[in-house]
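Researcher: Can you fold this with iron/sulfur cluster in place?
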Amino acid sequence: MNEDVLIICESVYNGNTLKLATAMAGELNCLLVNTKEAENLDLRKYKTIGFGSGIFFARHTPILMEFISKLEFSEQPAFVFSTHGSPILGKYHKPLKTLLTKKGRTIIGEFSTKGYDCTGPFTIVGGGNKGKPNESDQRKAARFISKLFPKYKRIDDYLSLTHIESLRDGVTNVYKIKKDANEIILKGDIVTVNQNKCIGCGKCLKNCPLGIFELRYEKSAPIRELDCVQCRLCQSYCPTRAIYLHGTWKDSIRVAKRHSKR
Ligand SMILES: Cc1cc2nc3c(=O)[nH]c(=O)nc-3n(C[C@H](O)[C@H](O)[C@H](O)COP(=O)(O)O)c2cc1C
Ligand code: SF4
Ligand code: SF4
């Protein structure tokens, strides 16, 4: 778990901003809390804190603003994020940034996307920005945060393999690599599980809709990886970030063919 960064998010309207916060926390493997939960934490121990919410009347939600106004003065860097209903963001981040700056914090980055909004004229058409933030927005949020904190980028050990064997139907490939004098065992070509990181919690087994994984010697093995549809559910549930996906468009065609035969 990344103990350096904390994300505080108040997503009071439709849970729009929480989707971005979850994508960012997943990318950084850090804690994500709301303001109430944050009150019980010692915020001084984090090197950087991210603050985010939806935009309400041209600023972040009052709950978040109030929480920040009570914070101690600190030189801790901060980043801000939001979702907004209007076509452009405008200067909606300014009140929050000004407040954080007054509290001694330096703003190191900011991010915003559109969020589903069913207010004002949008009610006539059943709401604006339907489905937003969507998957693409969540990926953008993850890219934003990984650029801001390159140190916490997921390192995919599979990519360091010098020789990758060709796929054999139904067989899970196993690789041993050495890194910093430690031996790492990887399983799978399309779905790779780092056996050293896997704690055998079984969450990937329960949540993979295609039943790709099985526990072998108390570790997850991607036994049926050739059926993987790259939905990424396993990655979002894995607490230790042990899973990597390598599917290409060729694999997607192969998967579609295999499924159509059933
Ligand atoms: C009462 C209210 C006021 C809002 N005011 C604004 C606004 O001034 N500018 C804007 O772009 N969006 C505005 N929105 C839209 C929200 O910012 C948008 O739906 C956001 O994604 C909500 O985030 P949340 O679901 O995380 O709370 C408003 C929404 C509500 C309900
Ligand atoms: S990406 Fe989806 S289908 Fe593939 S292993 Fe993970 S959960 Fe299963
Ligand atoms: S979710 Fe992650 S840690 Fe848990 S069994 Fe699967 S790969 Fe291992």
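Model: Folded with iron/sulfur cluster in place. The domain at 157-260 is CATH 3.30.70.20 (Alpha-Beta Plaits).
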